[in-house]
Each structure stands twice: as structure tokens, then as C-alpha cells.
Amino acid sequence: MRRAGDGASSTSYAISPPVVTTVPVNGTDAAFPVARVFCVGRNYAEHAIEMGHDPDREPPFFFMKPADAVVPTGSTLPFPSQTEELHHEIELVVALGEGGAQIPEEKALDHVFGYAVGLDMTRRDMQAVAKKAGRPWDMAKGFDQSAPTSPICPAARLGHPSAGAIWLRINGELRQEGDLDQQIWKVPETISYLSTLVELRPGDLIMTGTPKGVGRVDRGDRLEGHVDGVGDLEITYAD
Ligand code: MN
Q: Deepest of 190, 208, 210, 211, by most Cβ within 10 A of its Cβ?
């Protein structure tokens, strides 16, 4: 199959090809191109409990958002359609610089380009209906602008954080607070396991789950997220 960017390609497109979504990289003018966005469900015990699940009995599971759901820090976003229960989930985001399948845990961190702070915005009301009816979560999780993401901090500079505070404030009030060391599936395990399900690609982002304290976002709210050492994220929802 011929892809855009192949050296010898002279493909003439019937319509304009999609624009590549990018995320800025701290300390450089080069942008990180987003391939796909994978998300880990229930990766912090206290969040699993608040959602009514037993954290000890569940293997990791994944869902996805489209690449163009990624929007930059500083954005003012329209309030999403078809929800009256928009929820915030603050997360550590892993940005892959190298792809691969069947990646062993001990090699997994070699595939990481860097880390960012992300929000897995969720139409919780729609997700509850989907769960009850046994339907997919896509429209509850993968809607437009559902993945605000901070600039990426390169692992070459940062290293690989396995501990450190992660928090979210709304209008200055603390709503979510945890530590990366509370993750049930650690980053190398998550990469390794995901790579048994799909062949990972350079440019893939992995949102690694949220600590306790998820809750409602209203029109006009200002969200500030933080992960120690990694960075900060700030977005506002329009009135
Ligand atoms: Mn999440």
C-alpha cells in the first residue's frame, strides 16, 4: 500500500488529505506528529473503586480516540454536544518515538519519545448508557476535542517518571489528586501489553489512566492539570 509521504509517491488525491495533528515538543521547534491515541481504562485502584469495580481483578483494557481529538493547551473549547455530564480525567500521556509489536517489558521504555499531561474528556452520561446496553464507548470517549494535551517533554531530558504528583484543578479548586506510583499497570507493562494487541507506531500516544476524583465540568470552567516534572495543561470551556 502506498502512503502519503512515500518517497516515490505521486498520488493525486480525490480530496485534500487529512492534516497531521501535532503536539509541540518542549525545547525544540519540531512538532510531534500524532498517529493514534490509545487510552487505558481504570489504571488507578481508587478510581476503579469510585467507578464501582474491583481493581485487583481486571487486566488492562484499552479504548481509542481519533488523533484529531488532540487539542493544545491554552485552548478555549466549545462545550461538547449531546452531554449534560461532561467529566474530566487527568492523565499521564506517553508519546512513542518507535513502534513495534510484541515489545518485551524490559525494552518498552526504549520506544518512548517523551511524556505529556492529557485530559481524557468523557461524556459520562453517554458512557453509562453504553455500558448498560453493552454498546461501544466511542462516542462517549472519542468525540471532537476530547484529548487536550500539553507539550511533550522529551524522555531524553526528563527520563521516565514512575512517581510524582498528578492533579487537576477546576476554577482553582483541587478536584483530582494522585501519584503516578499508584498506577496498577506501569508504563512498561502497558506498552508491552498493548503491543501484543496491535503493532504500535511512532507517533502513537497512550493516555495511561486517571487517579480518583473524576467529576463534572460545566460551561465556563477553567481546567488546570499538572504532572510533576512533565508539565502543565490548561483549557477553558466556553460559556
Ligand atoms: Mn481515562
A: 210
Rounded distance from Cα 201 to ligand 1 centre (Å): 21
Give 120 Cα–ligand 1 centroid separation in angstroms: 5
Query: What is the 232 CA–ligand 1 centroid distance (Å)?
Result: 17
Q: What is the CATH number of the domain that holds 52?
A: 3.90.850.10
Q: pLDDT per residue over 60-104, tens digit each?
A: 899 999 999 999 999 999 999 999 999 999 999 999 999 999 999
Q: Calculate how far, in angstroms, residue 12's C-alpha sits from the geometric centre of ligand 1.
A: 39
CA–centroid distance, residue 7 to ligand 1 (Å):
38
Collapsing DSSP to helix, strand or coil, 144 comes out as coil
Any domain includes 12? no
Distance CA 186, CA 207 (A): 12
Q: Strand pairing of 62-65 and 147-149?
A: unpaired
Report if residue 9 sits inside a domain. Answer: no
Q: Is the pTM of this model over 0.90?
A: yes
In a domain, 17, yes or no: no
How many angstroms is it from 185 CA to the middle of ligand 1? 13
Strand 122-123, strand 86-88: pairing: antiparallel
Residue 3 lies in a domain: no
Number of domains in the chain: 1
pLDDT at residue 197 is higher than 50: yes
Q: Give dist(CA 18, CA 16) in Å, integer.
A: 7
* Domain region containing 72: 22-237
